[in-house]
Write a structure and sequence with these properties.
401 residues, mainly alpha, Ubiquitin-like (UB roll), Receptor-associated Protein, three-stranded antiparallel beta sheet
Length: 401
């Protein structure tokens, strides 16, 4: 007999924690399932430290490899292949030794009695992936859940690639412009200053300002670099605290353009995950708990947590999502229609598709405006430096004549 600790959700979506003695993990899951609990996390107490060490030692799958893994898993399980054999086949087909070792380690843990969701969690997979796989195992629809997860990750990857492609050009322009201005301030301006000092005469105000900026950069450049590095370090450390992330998200939600984009992106993630879970047969309250973890904005996550409580008390999903005014009105209306017509899961995924397209259009529109502004900003900066250098030269020529 071994001692296991578990974390599970009941039919009302309430979290349950406890300990149980049994011969194997599979037996523990059967006992909890008989009690109406859906297991989210199950760990053998004496193996907990060992599993954490394995998680740190093992490497994670990349995003593209995760999508490929889930697609193959869905195909093989749908064809009737047992889970252990499917994982062995996937491991053999991996392109590199690192990913092969990760999948082989997952297979070994499943072979030893661990659930697939728990094995994925140990290897650093996203919480949403682990929870959806757990739901698929509990409902016997692991192949369908894996297919939907692969589609979800593919959409996220496509949006990230689109954003990267759109921002690459403006970033290159900005970096190149900053490098040019720093070079002029730190190298060119000091050399020309020495010529002006030997020639004598009064320098234009613009030139005096640029010379002062150049001297400040040369004298305190290292200090500025250290200060920027310290600010970045303190920001990274601060963001590890949930209270600091909460305050940061509140600030982001006050920005006019950014808040609208973030709300629509998070709404899309939430309703798509919720729709996929409901299609997989997961109870609504449990699905809402899992989908809530896909939200990156902490104030919105907190508000939608209250929506679960309202749903438990008999409220409709659309009414519950009105909490905090985070979910757009159009999405609420479409969700209400889906509830009334009995097609809630389909309507949720349709809402997610609409907001994904709208977010993509907004990002493109924003970057289309930013590109010329960045070019103009770099042109003004470099032009100002050039004018500061050329004006004294013109005055010197006039004095010579």
């Amino acid at each position: 007999m071994s001692l296991f600790t578990y974390e599970a959700l009941d039919e009302q979506g309430r979290r349950k924690n406890g300990e149980i003695n049994s011969d194997s993990e599979r037996a523990v899951r059967q006992i909890l399932r008989a009690k109406g609990l859906m297991v989210r996390k199950l760990t053998m107490v004496e193996n907990a430290n060992k599993q954490k060490g394995e998680a740190k030692a093992s490497q994670r799958l990349k995003s593209a490899e995760t999508v490929n893994f889930l697609q193959q898993l869905a195909t093989l399980i749908d064809s009737g292949m047992p889970l252990v054999e499917a994982l062995a086949s996937i491991a053999e087909g991996m392109e590199n030794a690192r990913s092969c070792r990760v999948v082989a380690s997952i297979r070994q843990q499943v072979l030893e009695g661990s659930a697939l969701a728990e094995a994925l969690r140990i290897h650093g997979f996203d919480d949403v992936i682990c929870n959806m796989v757990a739901a698929g195992e509990e409902t016997g629809q692991l192949d369908a859940v894996s297919t939907r997860l692969a589609e979800l990750l593919e959409r996220r990857q496509a949006l990230s690639q689109e954003l990267l492609s759109a921002t690459l050009y403006p970033v290159i322009i900005m970096v190149f412009g900053v490098v040019v201005m720093l070079f002029l301030l730190a190298v060119v301006v000091p050399q020309i200053v020495s010529v002006f000092e030997r020639a004598g005469g009064d320098l234009p105000a613009l030139t005096v300002f640029v010379i002062a900026a150049s001297e400040f950069l040369r004298n305190h450049g290292l200090m500025l670099i250290l200060l920027c590095s310290a600010l970045i370090f303190f920001y990274v450390v601060a963001m590890k605290k949930e209270s600091m992330r909460y305050q940061r998200d509140l600030l982001l939600l006050k920005l006019p353009v950014m808040s609208n984009l973030l709300l629509k992106t998070n709404t899309s993630r939430y309703v798509r995950t919720l729709g996929m879970l409901l299609e997989g047969g997961v109870p609504a309250l449990v699905a809402m708990k899992i989908a809530q973890q896909s939200i990156t904005l902490l104030p919105m996550r907190e508000a939608l947590g209250k929506a679960s409580d309202m749903l438990r008390e008999g409220s409709s999903l659309a009414d519950g999502l009105k909490t905090g005014d985070f979910v757009p009105l159009l999405a609420l209306r479409m969700i209400a229609v889906g509830e009334q017509s009995g097609t809630l899961a389909t309507m949720l995924i349709r809402v997610a598709d609409n907001y994904d397209k709208e977010s993509s259009r907004n990002i493109k529109r924003l970057l289309t405006v930013m590109e010329p502004l960045l070019v103009m900003g770099m042109a003004v900066g470099v032009g100002t430096l050039a004018m500061a250098i050329l004006l004294p030269i013109v005055e010197m020529n006039q004095l010579v004549h």
